[in-house]
């Protein structure tokens, strides 16, 4: 098990390295370039040349990459020149990333806590009202674009009804920062109002972001439970006179969860795409928001550090999924 | 273990009050856009305490459906079960789900055909044994463990301490079936239903499992319903044999008379399709020709007639009644040496 984890962590380093090469090459090939982005279209040729030299952009690309890599290993990813000019890109990442992680975890919790029980019930009452309603609901969840759903939620529940805040992450101004996860910070420092306020800000974005993962996880749970219900070992469990609670938990769900875990892992990786849209609509200060701003302002250091971090998280999540898989399925362990 | 050999019945249970009494059991499956399918049609038989009864027939004769109906394990929807299944005078068909749950695993145990798919792949063997004890004996997981260990030992699993923590995929086919037997017998049920328990196993393992089953039911004085298509299995195990065809009983008798002097042509056909070591190697086996797809409806004929070497005209026109003479029951117009049955009367048909 330990060897397995170490091997996967080494793979993580390789993936990040390969991605950094690709990312660097791609950013360099984009039209416009850093200099135009920093100085504007109407800068004089002299000042352009001076800045090009200063940034080392006149060097061959492999040389540029090497110096990028050297600095990156020391934690220097350059300075933001668009999103928050003057702030080191890494600091910006560290400030914004917890917001996105908090939002993603909330969305995932909403999706999983709804999808698992509903998927199970829909399978048990196949063809029933609940089954049909949930299937249509999950279709809608996939079909409605995230940004549209986000707008609808914001319009109804924040603007029209006023139940939830319209935008941002927190309104309590003097909240103490500990981890950067606002809900957790409030709990740690016993600033309950700050925690509750941060939670309220999470509700609508989390629901919007949860729509697609919910639909996917629900569908896979339902199909997986249907498969397991037909298995001989479920009949064996019933022949032993076990209670429905034990049959459901130990015999049906523990087996049905295997494909569901994979689905949850994949959906977690895809959350970032949804987070860009959701964070933009709710003006939620996470990396999704920073990413879209970084693109429009050609803030290459910020883009680089965010994309690398996101890729790292994606690989890490899949590592966790693989470990979970081995925990749940003994057949994977002995292989 | 007692000194009985496979050739002698372990005791004469006749005269004892039946433990399980199945009367007119009929199971009908609804089919979309088609006539309902009668899988079991008016089946009656008794199982006395400690007795081993065989239900024999080929695929589709209703033997597995019978066992699932007794256990209350048929799907909730899409079928109707009529008749009665009395265990100690209590009709199981009228019990609530909860009452049946209390009964399954504690009064009646069951083992199944394919030991690998019948075991939960992600739960250790030991847990799958202790959970029955926890459920029915009110034991804690901890106190059930030594009992489970003892049970694995009893069914001949070597190194039970290690096996308790292992998973089904780490066991061989024979070990898996032993583990299933351990689960089914953990609460010392008065009755065990074995549904083709050796079909998925190697021939050498089959013999071991059958010997184990015989030893255990004798030791624990458990009644056994053995469901099989294999008359070889019946020969070594059963006191009484019920031969089923198309959901109905066609012949019943004690093992010896039935084997030495089969009256129903179907029983005769099954017996002559079993290879024998004593016979001439060049002698060809005589399978029963055709398949269940050729069956006629029982309501107006003998279902077996199209495949029967003894069929006469009457077999296609009337339904033979099941008639008892002594310990023998026969349903045939033109038997191999017994007394022909009369046609089924309106009253028989109900």
Describe, in plain words, how this protein is organized in 3D.
The complex is a heterodimer of chains A (335) and B (350). Chain A has 14 helices and no strands. In chain A, helix 5 runs parallel beside helix 13, helix 11 runs parallel beside helix 12 and helix 12 runs antiparallel to helix 13. Chain A is globular, with a radius of gyration of 24 Å. Chain A has 335 residues and is mostly helical. Chain B folds into two domains: 195 residues, Rossmann fold, CATH 3.40.50; 74 residues, no CATH class. Helix content of chain B is 30%, strand content 22%. In chain B, a hairpin with a 2-residue loop joins strand 9 and strand 10. In chain B, helix 6 runs parallel beside helix 7. The longest helix of chain B is centred in the middle third of the chain and has 18 residues. The N terminus of chain B is likely disordered. The chains are: A mainly alpha (335), B alpha/beta (350). At the A-B interface, helix 10 and helix 11 of A face helix 2, helix 3 and helix 6 of B.
Main features:
heterodimer, A: 335 residues, mainly alpha, B: alpha/beta, Rossmann fold, 8-stranded mixed beta sheet, 4-stranded antiparallel beta sheet, 11 helices, 12 strands, 22% strand, globular, disordered N terminus
């Amino acid at each position: 098990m330990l060897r397995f984890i170490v091997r996967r962590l080494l793979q993580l380093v390789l993936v990040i390295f390969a991605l950094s090469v690709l990312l660097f090459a791609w950013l360099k090939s984009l039209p416009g370039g850093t200099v135009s982005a920093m100085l504007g279209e109407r800068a004089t040729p002299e000042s352009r040349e001076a800045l090009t030299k200063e940034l080392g952009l006149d060097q061959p690309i492999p040389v540029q990459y090497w110096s990028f890599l050297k600095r990156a290993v020391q934690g220097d990813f350059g300075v933001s020149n668009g999103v928050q000019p003057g702030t080191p890109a890494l600091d910006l990442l560290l400030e914004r990333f917890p917001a996105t992680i908090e939002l993603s975890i909330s969305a995932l919790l909403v999706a999983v806590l709804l999808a698992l029980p509903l998927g199970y019930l829909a399978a048990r009452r196949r063809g029933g009202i609940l089954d049909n309603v949930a299937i249509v609901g999950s279709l809608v969840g996939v079909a409605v674009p995230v940004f549209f759903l986000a707008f609808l939620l914001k319009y109804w529940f924040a603007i029209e009804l006023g139940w939830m805040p319209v935008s941002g992450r927190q309104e309590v101004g003097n909240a103490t920062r500990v981890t950067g996860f606002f809900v957790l910070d409030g709990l740690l420092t016993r600033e309950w109002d700050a925690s509750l306020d941060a939670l309220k800000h999470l509700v609508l974005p989390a629901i919007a972001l949860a729509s697609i993962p919910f639909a996917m996880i629900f569908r896979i749970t339902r199909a997986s439970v249907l498969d397991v219900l037909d298995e001989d070992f479920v009949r064996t469990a019933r022949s032993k006179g076990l209670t429905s609670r034990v049959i459901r938990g130990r015999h049906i769900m523990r087996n049905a969860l295997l494909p569901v875990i994979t689905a949850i892992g994949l959906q977690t990786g895809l959350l970032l795409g949804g987070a860009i849209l959701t964070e933009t609509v709710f003006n939620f200060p996470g990396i999704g928001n920073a990413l879209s701003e970084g693109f429009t302002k050609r803030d290459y250091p910020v883009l680089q550090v965010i994309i690398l971090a996101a890729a790292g998280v994606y690989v890490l999540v899949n590592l966790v999924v693989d470990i979970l898989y081995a925990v749940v399925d003994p057949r994977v362990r002995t292989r | 273990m007692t000194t009985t050999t496979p050739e002698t019945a372990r005791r004469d249970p006749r005269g004892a009050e039946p433990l399980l009494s199945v009367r007119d059991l009929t199971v009908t499956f609804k089919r979309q856009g088609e006539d309902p399918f009668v899988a079991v049609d008016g089946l009656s038989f008794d199982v006395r305490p400690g007795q081993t009864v065989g239900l024999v027939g080929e695929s589709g004769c209703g033997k597995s459906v019978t066992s699932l109906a007794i256990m209350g394990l048929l799907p909730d929807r899409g079928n109707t079960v009529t008749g009665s299944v009395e265990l100690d005078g209590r009709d199981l068909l009228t019990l609530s789900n909860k009452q049946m749950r209390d009964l399954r695993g504690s009064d009646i145990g069951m083992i199944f055909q394919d030991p690998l798919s019948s075991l939960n792949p992600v739960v250790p063997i030991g847990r799958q044994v202790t959970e029955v004890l926890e459920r029915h004996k009110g034991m804690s997981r901890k106190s059930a463990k030594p009992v489970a260990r003892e049970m694995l030992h009893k069914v001949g699993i070597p190194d039970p301490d290690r096996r308790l923590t292992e998973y089904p995929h780490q066991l061989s086919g024979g070990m898996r079936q032993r583990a299933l037997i351990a689960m089914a017998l953990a609460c010392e049920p008065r009755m065990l239903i074995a549904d083709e328990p050796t079909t998925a196993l190697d021939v050498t393992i089959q013999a071991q499992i059958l010997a184990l089953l015989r030893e255990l039911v004798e030791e624990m004085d458990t009644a056994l319903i053995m469901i099989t298509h294999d008359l070889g299995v019946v020969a070594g195990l059963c006191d009484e044999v019920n031969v089923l065809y198309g959901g109905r009983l066609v012949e019943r008798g004690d093992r010896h008379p039935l084997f030495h002097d089969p009256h129903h042509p179907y029983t005769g056909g099954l017996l002559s399709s079993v290879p024998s070591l004593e016979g001439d190697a060049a002698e060809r086996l005589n399978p029963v020709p055709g398949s269940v797809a050729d069956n006629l409806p029982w309501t107006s004929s003998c279902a077996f007639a199209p495949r029967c070497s003894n069929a006469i005209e009457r077999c296609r026109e009337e339904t033979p009644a099941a008639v008892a003479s002594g310990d023998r029951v026969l349903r045939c117009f033109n038997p191999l040496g017994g007394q022909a049955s009369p046609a089924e009367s309106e009253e028989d048909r109900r």
